[in-house]
Amino acid sequence: MADHDTHPEHDHLHDHERSELSPLELRVRALETLLTDKGYVDPAALDLLIDTYQTKIGPRNGARVVARAWRNPEFRRWLLQDATAAIASLGFSGRQGEHMVAVENTPEVHNLVVCTLCSCYPWAVLGLPPTWYKSAPYRSRAVREPRSVLQDFGVSLPESVGIRVWDSTAEVRYLVIPRRPDGSAHLGEADLANLVTRDSMIGTGLALPPGSGV
Fold it and tell me: For the segment 45-63, what is each residue's pLDDT rounded down to a tens digit?
């Protein structure tokens, strides 16, 4: 049987936490608590599984989309004109991915995605949303002080680079096409996809440099 005292994060939700979650998320959390209480689920193993999906498996779809856009100018144009159709052509579609818009980082503009009302997120290409994306501080500060938020994530941009914030809604979700890193011209699509991180497709990170070993 699971020791409840050693896993306080799976105890009942506080009121302020409950207000941050959607009805579906509340149902999932309740099921998780029930299975944990009965000893069917190891919370540590579940957290590891969720983290793997959030940071590795889930974002691989989006990484393939970005890598294709980097290598194929025609696909890039299609992605910028009709992201939903372009993404679906690679087999990535479904709930919360029906109405996609792709925005491209340039030397002059850096794009940042937030959902100020709740936590709308393109699950079809990025998997599960990270915890910080759903937090009230990120949702408010990303709009008011985006440059400071980026610095918190380790992204320092020159003042000459403008920051454009996109607010996701239930109708539209955004995918950032990060700038292709220098020194990657010789890489194939699969290797390029390895340089694309989840955060770079939200705008809170940059694509990895070639040879970073990640």
Answer: 666 656 655 555 569 999 9
Q: Do 85 and 20 share a structural domain?
A: no
CATH number assigned to the domain comprising residue 188: 3.90.330.10
Candidate list 115, 168, 184, 200, residue with the active-site label: 115
Instruction: State whether 39 and 80 are in the same domain.
Output: no
Q: Distance between alpha carbon 99 and the CA centroid of its chain, in Å?
A: 16
Residue 211 lies in a domain: no
Domain of residue 20, residue span = 8-55
List Cβ neighbours of 46 (8 Å cut-off, separation of 6 or more).
Answer: 32, 36
Annotated active-site residue in 19, 93, 119, 200 = 119
Contact 21, 13 (CB under 8 A): yes
Any catalytic annotation for residue 119?
yes
Q: Are residues 136 and 37 part of one domain? A: no
Q: Percent of the chain beyond pLDDT 70? A: 76
Do 124 and 66 belong to one domain?
yes
118 among known catalytic residues: yes
pTM to 2 decimals?
A: 0.75
* List 19, 89, 93, 120, catalytic entry: 120
Q: Which one from 89, 118, 168, 200 is the annotated catalytic residue?
A: 118
Question: Do residues 43 and 96 both lie within one domain?
Answer: no
Helix axes 60-71, 73-81, angle to 10 degrees: 120
